[in-house]
Amino acid sequence: MAGSPKVGVLALQGDVREHAALLAGLGADVAPVRRPEELEAVSGLVIPGGESSVIDKLSRIFGLQEPIRAAIGRGMPMLGTCAGLILLADEVVDAIEGQESFGGLDVVVRRNAFGRQVESFEAELDVPELGQAPVKAAFIRGPVVESVGSAASVLSALPDGRVVAVEQGNLLGLSFHPEITGETRFHSRFLDRITARA
Ligand code: GLN
Question: Whose Cα sits closest to atom 8 in ligand 1?
Answer without folding.
Answer: 49
